[in-house]
Each structure stands twice: as structure tokens, then as C-alpha cells.
Specification:
Strand order of the largest sheet: 1-2-3-5-4
Radius of gyration: 20 Å
Number of domains: 2
Number of strands: 10
Bound molecules: adenosine-5'-diphosphate, magnesium ion
Shape: globular
Length: 284
Amino acid sequence: MTEAEGSIAPAELTCSRLRRIGEGIGRVVYGSQHWVVKRERTPVEVVALILVWKLLRKLPAGLTRRLLERPSKRVRLMRLFTQAGLLVIPMQVWFTSHVREIRKLYRSRDLRGERLTQTYLAGTSLIPRRITFPPTRVKIAGWPGHLTVTEAEERVESTLYQRLATLASAGQFELLEEWLNRFLDLRQQGWQRGLFSVDAHLKNFGVTGDRIVLIDPGGVTDRWEDVEAKLCFEEVVSQPHVQLGLGPVLGGCPEVASRFNARWKALVNASVVWGHWPKPSDSL
Ligand SMILES: Nc1ncnc2c1ncn2[C@@H]1O[C@H](COP(=O)(O)OP(=O)(O)O)[C@@H](O)[C@H]1O
Ligand SMILES: [Mg+2]
């Protein structure tokens, strides 16, 4: 359930042009001071991005790192070139590779996650507040210049990843560790509701006040088979912080990294997650 159903869109969304504040594989996000609206990418954009990521994976690590240092600029440029290529070569040709599989998987995970979070988490502090309103045209920076939206989401202060990186560069490792612990606590609250994120990437979580919220429901599942498959993969990961992209962030504080890894390994495994998981008998 969303609040303020049927009321008009907040004035700050319509009184000025909204800036682009983030993007992922499937969406581009624009923000006013307190709210964000999301634009779903077109299939051509998604395919172009998947191809760019596949290419990046094949490049030498050093070059990929340099390209990703300013991700939005350089990767966006690569995506635009790839997209231009897609326009002259028929989509079917690109879709013959397993790009089609990746896109299908992404979409189905996204739809399922969206449905599950709205069913089980709406109104809780675990996701951003959401409001709906009648179709409203908002101006956005860059293509296509405007969007018609029917909902907006509470704007978080930053992604969890950005917050951790900022704290690390300020040397505030104690605070950083607190956020890491909150992240593990949040995950357990999800498990208790029978939800598990197979894409628990730190850019998919946001920070607002003293809470962490899930900003991207893609990858949230309620199927124990999916959870088991993911946890089976987790078992062989020896340094979860590296897997989460925190290698460089925690480079200056190996003790925090090893404490976090130990907590993660002790929690994110099949027996602990199952211990939290609601069982059919719970509802009797
Ligand atoms: N509520 C929000 N407040 C502030 N930034 C957000 C919010 N939701 C998303 N973003 C930004 O947009 C990025 C992409 O959004 P996301 O929903 O994860 O899209 P995708 O499904 O394409 O990954 C996020 O990583 C974050 O930087
Ligand atoms: Mg995302």
C-alpha cells in the first residue's frame, strides 16, 4: 500500500527540472530535494548496457577499474555507442547470445522483487516511503526531457556503498562498522519475513537518517530454492567484503574487514537463514 493515494504530486517535483541522481541496469533515477522518480530503460538501452558490462569483464582489470572510476560518464558514453550499433544491426542478432537470457532473468527478478516488497514491506521502515498521484508530467535533465509519472519515492541521502566509501575516506571506521552491522541486521529482518535478496549489492540499499532501506527490490525472492542456490555459492566466498566491492574501501582497515567477514560468514548461511525463515506452522 502506498500513502497519499490520489492526492496531487508534491510541488517540488513539478516546479523545476529534476537532476539525474543515479542509474542501474534497468532504471534511471531523477531527484528533487525529498523525492525521486524512476524511468524504466528501453529494451535497447538494457541490452546495450549488458553488452558493455560483458565487454568490461573481458578487459584487463586495470583498464576496467580506470573506466569505472567515473562510471556514469565513461560507461554512459560506451553504452550510447553500443546503442547506436544496436540500431543498425537487428535486435535478433544481439539476442542470439545469452544476452537474451540475462535480460529475461533481470526482468523477471525485478518484477518478482517489486511485487514481493510491495506485498510484504510496504509501510515498514525497510523500504523508502512511496506516494502515488494522478499522471503528472515532470521535467528531467537530459533525454527525453520530460516524463509522465504516477508515483515518487522518498529520496535517500546516499546509497549504502557511497556512505561506506565516504566514511572510509574520512577515516571514520568505527561509524563504518556500525553501518555494516546495521546492514546485516536489516538482512535478518528480511529473512524473518520470508524474503531474501539474491542481489544484495550495496548500491541497491540506501541510507536515510539512521536507517538502511532497500531501494532496488530486484532480486528479492521468497522461494527457498533460490535462497539455497545463492547460499551454496556464498559458501565458497572466503572474503565477502571483496565480493561486495568493499576491497578498496576497507583496504585501510583490515581489522574491520575481517570482523565483518566473520559476522557475515556466521550469519549468511543456510542454517541461520532457515532458522529465521517463517515456517508454515508459524501461521497456525
Ligand atoms: N530512493 C532513492 N533515493 C536516492 N537515490 C536513489 C533512490 N533509488 C535509486 N537511487 C539511485 O539510483 C540508482 C539506480 O536505482 P535502482 O532502483 O537500483 O535501479 P536498477 O534497477 O536499474 O538497478 C541507485 O543505485 C541509486 O544510486
Ligand atoms: Mg540497482
